[in-house]
Every structure is written in structure tokens, then in C-alpha cells.
Specification:
The structure is a single chain. The chain folds into two domains: 42-47 and 162-485, no CATH class; 54-135, no CATH class. It is 36% helix and 34% strand. It is built from 16 helices and 19 strands. The chain has helices spanning 2-18, 28-33, 39-51, 58-73, 76-80, 166-179, 182-185, 203-215, 217-226, 251-257, 259-267, 390-395, 401-413, 415-418, 447-460, 464-485, and strands spanning 55-56, 86-89, 92-102, 105-111, 126-135, 149-162, 227-235, 241-249, 272-279, 285-292, 297-305, 308-310, 330-343, 346-362, 365-375, 379-384, 388-389, 422-429, 433-445. It has a 19-stranded mixed sheet that branches.
């Protein structure tokens, strides 16, 4: 019996060492890394390389520019008939890439053959394939657009992620929620001096922010410079912690240090808003998140207790439905998206875009799938450039703007004769983990749709100098975090 008790205690101590309960933000790294000390630094270095501008050989660089321009302009016909694409069977034409992870960043080149047979020797190396097929008739039948041409697009990629997998993401989420549990917050020291978001005066925020600043002083300085918070958390019912993050980006400081990024964000001020809510199968909220272009505001809300995610509604929490992220084996949820966007005076409003999501974790293989389920009719009002009203535009369009948008979105929902539009993210284990992405959709090929999407992209996508500044901004944040982890 004594031997059994000793074995049990030894196992308990060992498991506590491998998966220690985090009491402070600085403990989270130990939880994620386990026995692989220093792996967080390696992962951040990989993230920095992904953010960096990639280099190409001459042939690949020409195609990359051609591909980017074609996709941004939605010129699928020219792309499909391009000399860069080769026949891939079943009516598809495509191109394959290989990316080599180097200290200076990624070097990318076009390759021939099946990407599944390409070896990925180093951590971060990847291969990707882009396929396009022209359909003489769209697979969705809808009024005057039933004879429209469409294009089916497919993307497949895989990356050598080394020892990193979905498990690290789950450990990170659970560790963060554990530190934010009310029982843990009460044990944190009250800081003598705190500079991080010093405007927040409630005791829980003071303790949490003091611990974060003590754990990651350099990252705290970075956040304090460019982000402002109005609220962070509160004590919820049933001893839960209500996470209620409300804040905004500090545009004057971003404009000072990253001028092109600042100008780009300034241009987005009147763009509109996006709201995203995650629901479980019982139709209770898991998380809500909103972005407002005006004042660059954001907010996020969820509830937690002892590392668990607690579903909620306006009036109550559902503790029986709570779960620990690391204990999930199969989880089905739904994403609701609504938005209101201003594109040069034309206002597009949609109250519900539904995306079905499914997470599974089996034998070290993790998969997260998203499938477009439904898009409600989009309401259009206002006038293009505040001059040409929507009703006048409708006079020159067969049908009207709303009907055209509806057919475009229906084509995506019912893409490829009912297969639908989807994205699969997954990790598979071989000698090392492989991170895989698969995506597929169908797009209506219509001049007016293409024109509208070009304008949409021009309104939303950052220009080259702004993209460079955004890269610098993200790299600066990563550098500060890496400095804290040394």
C-alpha cells in the first residue's frame, strides 16, 4: 500500500511539474513549453520571419506580383489563362510554391509536381498550391444570373511546425484564463508602482496589470504606448471573472512612430463596424468581439472560472456547459458575424453571416474547420462617392445592387454544387508536426461584381508602405516579448 501511495504521489508531483498551474503571467511560458525550454523563443522567431517581407527568385517574383494584382482586381479570367499556371487535371489550372525559412526571412520559389511529395526539412519550411477552375455556368441557380460564369478556387498548404501544435494554443488559452480566475487574482500582490494602463483603478485590474507588467515589462511598455484601455475585467456571478476588454489604438503615437500605418488607420475612420459572436450548440454565447473604425475601438467579452470558458447570456451563466480548453476532444460551435461598411458613400449592412465551426483533437492530430452556412441579404443605401445614389446605379444594372450581392453570396454559400465554401486548419504528427490549411470556394464572374470588389479592396487593403509599417509594428511587439522571455 505504501508503494502504491508513493507511486501516486510521485505521479502527481511529476504531472504538476510537466503541467504546473500558472499563478502569474510569467508562469504561462513554463506551461506552454513543458520540457522544451526555449521553444517559445523559437516560435516567436518563426512568427517574426512569417511577418517579414519574403524574397523571391526573378520568375517567382514576377508571378507573385501578377497573382496579387489579379486577385485584388478579381481578374480570374486572365489569371486562369496565365502562362504561369499549368494544367492540374479536372479542369483546374494551378501553381505550386515552396518557402524556405531562413534567418533573413522566407525565400519563396515556384516548384513543379505534387506538394505532398515535397520534403520539408527545416522548421518553418512550407509548400502551397493554388488551383483555379473556370465554370461555364455558376452552380447556384438564381434569377437573371443563373447563366453567369464562375470560378472555383482551391488553396492547399502545409508547414513544418516542429514540436509546435494546437496543444500549445490550448495550453496558452487555459493558462491565461487560470491566471485571470478570481481565486488567483486575490492572491496576486498589490503593486507599489504600476505604469501599464494606470487609468484603471479597480482592485482586480490593478493586481492583474501589476503582475503582467512585472512579468513582461518590455511588452507592457509597448502596449502602454500604442493601446488605451477603458475596462479590463470585473467580478462576475458564481465567483467567476468577467473579462470585458474595452479600448482603442492610440493613433497619434502610431502616426508618430509608424506614419504610413497611421495614415492608413486614419483613412479607415469612417469605414464602419464588425461584430463577431461565438455560440455553443445550446445557443449560449462563448465570446463576443467588436471592432469600430471610429476611434479605432475594440471590445471583447467572455467569462471564466478556474481556467474554464463559461457560456453566458444576457441574464445568466451556464456552468454546466463550461469546459477546459485542454480537455476538448470534439467541440461544435457557430460564429455569427454582422457588419456595417461605408465604401465611398455606399453603405452595406448585413445583420447575420453564419459560419459553422468544428474542433477535434485525436491522437495528437488537431483540426479546426469553418464552413460558410448562410449570409442574410445585404442592405445597400447611400450613394457612391456621395454623388451617385444607389437607385441611379440600379438603373444601369440588370436587377439591382442588393440582388447582385445576394447572388454573389449565395454562390459562395452553395459553392461547387453544394460542397460550400470552407477552410480547414489542422496539425498532423509525423516526425514533426505539419500545419495544414485547405480552403475552397466559388466566385461569380460578373463585371459589376468585379468592379465592386476592386473598389472594396481599394478601400480596405493597406498600400505597400502601410503594409511595411504594419510589419514593423508587429515585429517591434515580438522583439519586446522575446526580450522579456530571455
Amino acid at each position: 500500500m505504501k508503494i502504491l501511495i508513493r507511486c501516486f504521489l510521485f505521479t502527481l508531483i511529476l504531472s504538476s511539474y510537466i503541467y504546473p498551474k500558472p499563478n502569474h503571467f510569467k508562469d504561462i511560458v513554463k506551461v506552454i513549453e513543458g520540457k522544451d525550454k526555449g521553444s517559445s523563443q523559437e516560435l516567436l522567431a518563426l512568427a517574426e520571419n512569417i511577418i517579414k517581407k519574403a524574397s523571391y527568385d526573378e520568375h517567382t517574383e514576377k508571378f507573385h506580383k501578377y497573382l496579387s494584382n489579379s486577385i485584388e482586381r478579381f481578374e480570374f479570367k486572365d489569371l486562369y489563362e496565365s502562362e504561369y499556371l499549368s494544367d492540374k487535371g479536372s479542369g483546374f489550372r494551378g501553381v505550386s510554391y515552396k518557402g524556405k525559412n531562413k534567418n533573413s526571412g522566407y525565400h519563396i520559389g515556384i516548384i513543379q509536381g505534387n506538394i505532398e511529395t515535397v520534403s520539408l526539412d527545416s522548421k518553418g519550411d512550407f509548400v502551397a498550391e493554388f488551383l483555379l477552375r473556370r465554370n461555364k455556368k455558376v452552380s447556384t441557380k438564381s434569377k437573371s444570373y443563373s447563366n453567369s460564369e464562375s470560378y472555383t478556387g482551391k488553396i492547399s498548404s502545409k508547414m513544418n511546425s516542429g514540436k509546435a501544435s494546437h496543444r500549445q494554443a490550448l495550453l496558452l488559452a487555459e493558462a491565461l484564463l487560470t491566471v485571470l480566475s478570481s481565486s488567483n487574482i486575490s492572491e496576486l500582490l498589490y503593486p507599489k508602482v504600476r505604469r501599464l494602463f494606470s487609468n484603471l483603478k479597480d482592485e482586480n485590474s490593478i493586481r492583474i496589470l501589476g503582475d503582467f507588467e512585472n512579468s513582461y515589462s518590455n511588452l507592457s511598455s509597448f502596449l502602454n504606448q500604442y493601446v488605451s484601455l477603458k475596462s479590463l475585467l470585473f467580478t462576475g456571478p458564481e465567483k467567476s471573472t468577467g473579462i470585458n476588454i474595452k479600448g482603442n489604438l492610440r493613433l497619434p503615437f502610431i502616426r508618430r512612430d509608424f506614419p504610413y500605418m497611421g495614415d492608413y488607420l486614419d483613412d479607415l475612420e469612417s469605414l464602419g463596424s464588425v461584430h463577431i459572436t461565438l455560440y455553443n450548440q445550446q445557443r449560449h454565447k462563448l465570446l463576443s468581439f467588436s471592432l469600430f473604425s471610429e476611434n479605432l475601438e475594440f471590445n471583447c467579452r467572455l467569462y471564466t472560472l478556474e481556467g474554464k470558458v463559461i457560456p453566458f447570456s444576457k441574464t445568466k451563466l451556464y456552468l454546466a456547459e463550461a469546459f477546459l480548453p485542454t480537455q476538448l476532444k470534439q467541440y461544435v460551435f457557430q460564429i455569427h458575424i454582422s457588419f456595417q461598411i461605408n465604401v465611398y458613400g455606399l453603405y452595406f449592412k448585413n445583420n447575420k453571416v453564419l459560419v459553422n465551426a468544428n474542433f477535434s483533437d485525436k491522437s495528437e492530430n488537431g483540426k479546426l474547420s469553418f464552413k460558410l452556412q448562410n449570409i442574410a441579404p445585404t442592405q445597400v443605401s447611400g450613394g457612391f462617392s456621395h454623388i451617385v445614389p444607389a437607385w441611379l446605379i440600379d438603373m444601369f444594372i440588370p436587377g439591382n445592387i442588393e440582388e447582385l450581392i445576394q447572388h454573389f453570396t449565395e454562390t459562395m454559400v452553395r459553392a461547387n454544387s453544394g460542397t460550400g465554401s470552407f477552410v480547414h486548419l489542422g496539425f498532423t504528427k509525423k516526425d514533426s508536426f505539419l500545419f495544414r490549411i485547405q480552403a475552397e470556394s466559388e466566385f461569380l464572374n460578373n463585371f459589376l461584381v468585379r468592379f465592386g470588389l476592386k473598389v472594396w479592396n481599394y478601400r480596405i487593403l493597406p498600400y505597400e508602405e502601410a503594409r511595411d509599417d504594419i510589419r514593423k509594428f508587429l515585429q517591434t511587439g515580438i522583439h519586446f516579448l522575446m526580450k522579456d522571455l530571455r
